[in-house]
């Protein structure tokens, strides 16, 4: 299945947000901040450790301090940042695949890490596509996966964000995760 | 194809079996799937995945991200007819490689816009960049040679390769003097002006985009975020560019605010570059600041005059009066308010030429009135002021009076008057320097009160007195306290009384 060429954008959000344009602005700022942070890691700075949760937190600190940020709660910011993080990773995965295709076969050396990385890229793109499918049948569950997996939201935060009980989060998450994992397994 | 009903059934069956022993799964699914083999198979796959806990979702995004973000390079790969040979740099919009064209043996700089397929907005900007660059042909602007798109949709552009170093480095390494720096800078201005005439604003003028080649020629790079002033596409994107695509040290206030940018934005950035070339420093020290502080600094802080910044270890030497002119030059180009900057790069070039020809500049420093009103609008409410300011105030007055009484030349007094008054107020508000400042603080109103008292003592010079009262009265008015001036002073200061008879008549 070929995923939609255009990635998720801020406009995928349900209209329960404070202000359309300020959210768009915040999304863009978040996305860029995450990209910037990711680029630092890409350049191989050994002191940089990449956990999306930490990146999201750092992005929040930076953006919350800046005047241009829309007045949203930290929770809503995390939701936004989760989407931005998804986009950053999908972008990285596509790039990784593109580079693999374009490289001169003579120059490819076998490398276990590279094999794993390519798998990651493929898997991530499959996951992204599967999440889009899931969003069509149950937007809440797709948002849940996005927030938890890409944004590092905990069960309690997710429950608060989606306005459901923690038990519901656990139940929905488990089913969604199982379905997505099976989707990945079949797609491979 | 997954639909809502299918998804509900999948979940229902999954939950029915998930907490049961594996041995019971078959039976549960046989009952629940009622002959739908595909449904049963799928739920089984879900149950296996759930039990296995081995998917990417269980590994967590950190592991995935670490793998995807690890170092990577496209060196060796073919882009159109070009073979990438070396990474030159990485910018906000893409990576730049040095490339060789195998058939012709020529070299070029290839820029890959890596995430063009992610955001359609970025794609638009890339297309705009190509259109923009193609219209520019100037010896000091790096030429666009070719452009295209990879199979996966990644766009690329090929530019004239430029071997050079940033203008700041070039000036330092060659130990260029004042005149040479200004002449080099003038070339930069001419290239930017050329672009402006074609309705292209660079928007990201900074030393790393201004290279000086080994033979001393200037080349402007990376119209990456330049956008034609002609309307095309854009829309909401336009309002966002200020937020995202800027280099803070050279960003104009309107870019920080997300306001429309224009020719005046490049004028500002050129002013910052000039400031840096003359003083070896940036106007705003933005290192180790949070984005919020950076923004505040760009929007509000009046940077030290370039002559002040140059005081410790200036890379160029100039006379006091030259520094005065350079202060005006940089100050005008870098004015917080676009309307108060040079109206065009051409106007900036004209003043550089005036300077080089030892002629008077066209630009004028901000008037006292303007600066006082700016000060008040920035500092409503209590401000920290200092006893040193008051001491200076008294000193300035004393100097002023003594020089006035001894001055026979009325013209000279007149010229001195403006400067003195200006110093009177700026010193009043600026306070002393650093550690010399006592810890005492005053409300701005108290400070102005004190200024009025001082001004009242200037009875021997009614014109100066009137001008001071005018300024101070304007401050009172902004502070909502015009009653602090006596009626006759309100008249002198040009404030029309709200009620009653005009005492001036």
Q: Please give the share of residues in helix of chain A.
A: over 70%
Q: If classified by CATH, what would the architecture of the largest domain in chain B be?
A: Orthogonal Bundle
**Tally the helices of chain B: what do you get?**
21
Spatially, the strands of the biggest sheet of chain B line up as 1-2-3-4-6-5
Uncertain segments of chain B are 115-119, 224-245, 380-392, 404-411, 430-442, 494-505
- The backbone outline of chain B, from C-alpha atoms, is flat
Topology:
The complex is a heterodimer of chains A (188) and B (505).
Chain A (H helix, E strand, L loop, with lengths): L19 H23 L9 H13 L9 H29 L9 H26 L1 H12 L4 H8 L3 H22 L1
Chain B lengths: L3 H15 L3 H12 L3 H16 L3 H4 L1 H9 L8 E2 L2 E9 L4 E7 L5 E6 L7 H15 L9 E6 L5 E5 L4 E3 H7 L4 H20 L2 E2 L8 E4 L4 E3 L6 E2 L7 H9 L8 H5 L5 H17 L11 H10 L5 H4 L10 H14 L11 H12 L11 H11 L8 H20 L3 H21 L13 H13 L5 H17 L8 H6 L13
Helix pairs in contact in B: 1-2, 1-3, 2-3, 8-11, 8-15, 11-14, 14-15, 16-18, 16-20, 17-18, 17-19, 19-20
Structural commentary:
The complex is a heterodimer of chains A (188) and B (505). Helix content of chain A is 71%, strand content 0%. Chain A has 7 helices and no strands. Chain A has helices at residues 20-42, 52-64, 74-102, 112-137, 139-150, 155-162, 166-187. Chain A is flat and about 45 Å long. Residues 1-18, 44-49 and 102-118 of chain A have low confidence and may be disordered. Chain B folds into 4 domains: 4-53; 78-159, Phosphorylase Kinase, domain 1; 165-365, Transferase(Phosphotransferase), domain 1, CATH 1.10.510.10; 369-492, no CATH class. Chain B is built from 21 helices and 11 strands. In chain B, strands 1-2-3-4-6-5 form a 6-stranded antiparallel sheet, with helices on one face. In chain B, a hairpin with a 4-residue loop joins strand 9 (210-213) and strand 10 (218-220). The model of chain B is unreliable at 115-119, 224-245, 380-392, 404-411, 430-442 and 494-505 (pLDDT under 50). Chains A and B meet through helix 1, helix 2, helix 3, helix 4 and helix 5 of A and helix 1, helix 3, helix 4, helix 5 and helix 9 of B.
